[in-house]
Amino acid sequence: MYFDEHNPPHFHVRYNDFRASMDIITLNVYAGTLPARVRGLVEEWAEMHQDELLAMWETKEFRRVKPLV
Question: What three-state secondary structure class fits 63?
Answer without folding.
Answer: coil
